[in-house]
Structure formats: C-alpha cells, structure tokens
Specification:
Strand content: under 5%
Number of strands: 0
Shape: rod-shaped
Structural class: mainly alpha
Number of helices: 2
Number of domains: 1
Order of helices and strands: HH
Distance between the termini: 49 Å
Largest sheet: none
Length: 117
C-alpha cells in the first residue's frame, strides 16, 4: 500500500509538472502572438495615417485644380451659373468619401481590440 501511495504521488507530481510546463509554453506563445498583433496594429495605423495624409493632399490638389479651372473659365467668360452649382456637390462627395474611409478604419481598430481581449 505504501508503494502504491508513493507511486501515485510521484505520478501526480509528474503530471502537475507537465501541466505547469505546458501552461508556461502556452502563456509564452500567447504573449508572442499578442506582441506580434500589437506591432501589426501599429504598422497598420501608421500606413492608414499615411494614406489619410495622401488622400487629404490629393483632395487639396483636386480642389486647387478645380479652382484654377474655374478661374480660367471665368477669365475666358465660358463659365455659366450651372457650373458654379456643381462645385459644392463635388466637394460634398469628397467629404463623404473621407468620412466613409474614417468609419472603416475605426471599425477595423475595434475588431483588433476585440481580438486582443
């Protein structure tokens, strides 16, 4: 009976050590994955910010070109009242696209945060 108890205790300790080792390896791997995910999120945010800046630059360039064309047409006397009405509509479309792009990025950030938890 004493031998059985000793054998059972040894087996329990071995199983406990194996479980602790497995848990340590699992925790280590989870930490590695979280670190990688965090780095990917940072990289993605930097790229999104760069794209946002480029988009704003393109919008400013487009607006400037539109103003230049409008001024040229006005100088030539070719612009009529209907052309003036189209400019605000185009600006509204640009703002809507920017808003949609911002909403998509915000949604992606929320998905990443949920995945981290």
């Amino acid at each position: 009976m004493k031998n059985y108890t000793s054998l059972k205790g040894k087996r329990s300790r071995t199983m406990l050590m194996d479980l602790q080792s497995w848990r340590f390896k699992l925790d280590t791997q989870v930490k590695v994955y979280r670190d990688e995910l965090s780095e990917l999120k940072k990289t993605l945010n930097v790229e999104v910010d760069q794209l946002r800046v480029e988009f704003q630059d393109l919008r400013a360039t487009l607006q400037q070109q539109q103003e230049d064309v409008t001024a040229s047409l006005r100088n030539l006397g070719l612009q009529d009242a209907s052309d003036v009405k189209h400019a605000p509509a185009q600006e509204t479309k640009i703002e809507e696209v920017d808003k949609e792009e911002h909403e998509v990025v915000a949604g992606e950030d929320n998905n990443i945060e949920v995945a981290e938890n």
